[in-house]
Amino acid sequence: MKELVVISGKGGTGKTSIVAAFASLAENAVLADCDVDAADLHLILAPDIKQRNDFIGGKRASVITEKCIGCGKCAQVCNFDAAVFDGPVNDLVRKTYKIDPVACEGCGVCVHFCPADAIEFKDAVNGQWFISDTRFGPMVHAELGIAEENSGKLVSLIRKQAKQIAAQHNKDLIIVDGSPGIGCPVIASITAADLVLVVTEPTVSAQHDLERVIELAGHFKIPTLVCINKYDINRKMAAEIARKIDNRNIAVVGRIPYDTTVTKAQIAGQSIIEYSNNGLSEQIKSLWLAVSERLAGKEVG
Amino acid sequence: MFSRTLVWVPEMSDNFTIAVASGKGGTGKTTIAANLASYLTEAGENVRYLDCDVEEPNGHIFLKANITTVENITVDVPQVDLDKCTACGKCGEICQFGAIVCIKEHVMTFEPLCHSCGGCRRICPADAIGKKPVEIGRISVGKAGKIDFVTGKLRIGNVRTPSLIKQVKKHITDDCISIIDVPPGTSCPVVEAIRGVDFVLLVTEPTPFGLNDLKLAVGLVRQLGLPFAVIINRHGIGDERVEQYCQSEDIDIAMKLPDDRKIAEVYSSGGMIVDLLHQCKKHFAELLDYLECAKEKLNEKRRLRI
């Protein structure tokens, strides 16, 4: 079983549209949406949710108002400025402390040091995750709650579930839609994957972000391929990007033209492959072929 | 919608912080933030631009700042003095993140997992745990023309994004307008970047992905109780659903920037659209009018509260 992770560094380069197209081209794959704080793949794959689960990423402190003696020890030991002195009155003091749930890091230090035993430490439900059926095969996806934490843990959980499902159903490939950036959810998406495909575009910003994300994949020693989307909006820069990454021994396996079909397909709720049969889909099919060959262990470039 | 004045009078100055955010990546946050900073400066305001998209900072590409100082940003992780350590195991018990564990007589730390809560240091009865600074990234400060420029850059392989953003935001002062370029998404880095700002501009594009992620971002700013408005970029590229949504939710649309190949070309080579494309100036002038009115409204509210 192989795992392909599609990431981009910079957001909005077309990563999810490409994953959706891959989903309709892959014959025996499990799909996993690991862009947990702005998930969009479900808008195209229209998953039929079969199983719904709470995601408990960590714990969260909360003051039991009746017990608070207003001593301020919690505020003193909190490194995240989460304990604030504007809770309601109780029988003991005129003002109590409360914990700002958004600022709370879930470290539990206040819970331990509270002399009145007035702070609870309960599991925090940070979101939900789902196992679904789609017209292209099983899908694992999630919804991180608003302003919630632990996106990296949720990503790891989704990948683990996708692997289990792949094993159960004899699927030979997992296609992961990653998130933008180079931080915790991205690291959780790519560690120990078989192949990373970076979707970039010929803009100075995307080029800058591409270098950072390639460095990240290199840091974790994951084989990497690059696809230049909308290459024709700035051909000169597209060529420059190709030359630069060639120096790092990374292959450009696709050059996809700018095409309004991408947005039209999205509005129709279809993958590019389903929506149209023009030159764009041919380009994506050849990209898919190159990626599949690399996954099968062949050298491409 | 607010009424519009025709001429911009520089009176927004002093102590107004605007965050430019979006759920979805690549909708044009940095374009809006950098060009807004430049346009405000041209209108006579003192402006500071702060790039809080520390994983992939791009503001420098457009603002081409002259960097004068670079600061290494560190966080504290535990350093165990093994001579003092009694292997009581209390540090491992309090740590929620698996960053310090005690197996038999051996205490081991796993620095990448540490959240710097300081719990292990406080709880250690033998006073055997000290602080060790580790670098998580850098903050560069300089000038882009008249704009004060601050940018954070996370070290590759590091996950302490919110800690670095917090340090970038320490550069906010109350004698100018601050423009914060926020990372994409809706989780902890975004919360850290927009917490405490005066106003949020949510940049989106009129597509199903744009709308879905806009709804998440609206949920976030509403939960944090922050005033906000929407900017539609690449207007005309998709469908009407973003505008319909804003109307049904009673959300102001502060600016619509048209889908235009010229804008895409200027952007692609790192240019400023307010400098190079005359038609863009008009849109930013409208945005400024909108912000001026929004600020008035907020001040009014604050006065009433006092």
Description:
- The complex is a heterodimer of chains A (301) and B (306).
- In chain A, the strands form two sheets. In chain A, strands 3-6-7-2-8-1-9-10-11 form a nine-stranded mixed sheet, sandwiched between helices. In chain A, strands 4-5 form a two-stranded antiparallel ribbon.
- Helices cover 36% and strands 28% of the residues of chain A.
- By secondary structure, chain A is an alpha/beta fold.
- Chain A has two domains: 2-46 and 135-295, Rossmann fold; 57-125, Alpha-Beta Plaits (2-Layer Sandwich), CATH 3.30.70.3270.
- Chain B is α/β, with parallel strands linked by helices.
- In chain B, 36% of the residues lie in helices and 27% in strands.
- Chain B has eleven helices and eleven strands.
- Chain B has a nine-stranded mixed sheet with strand order 3-6-7-2-8-1-9-10-11, with helices on both faces. In chain B, strands 4-5 form a two-stranded antiparallel ribbon.
- In chain B, helix 1 packs across helix 11 and helix 5 (161-169) packs parallel to helix 6.
- The relative contact order of chain B is 0.20.
- Mean pLDDT of chain B is 93; it is low at 1-10.
- Chains A and B meet through helix 4, helix 6, helix 7 and helix 9 of A and helix 4, helix 6, helix 7 and helix 9 of B.
CATH class call of the largest domain in chain A: Alpha Beta
Structural class of chain A: alpha/beta
Q: Would you identify the CATH H-level superfamily of the largest domain in chain B?
A: P-loop containing nucleotide triphosphate hydrolases
- Can you identify the CATH class of the largest domain in chain B? Alpha Beta
Please indicate the count of domains of chain B: 2
Shape designation of chain A: elongated
DSSP helix fraction of chain A: 25-40%
By DSSP, the count of extended strands of chain B is 11
Largest interface: A-B, 62 and 56 residues
Largest sheet of chain A: 9 strands, mixed
Number of helices of chain B: 11
- CATH arch. level architecture of the largest domain in chain B: 3-Layer(aba) Sandwich
What would you report as the Rg of chain A, rounded to the nearest angstrom? 23 Å
Helix content range of chain B: 25-40%
Q: Tell me the number of strands of chain A.
A: 11
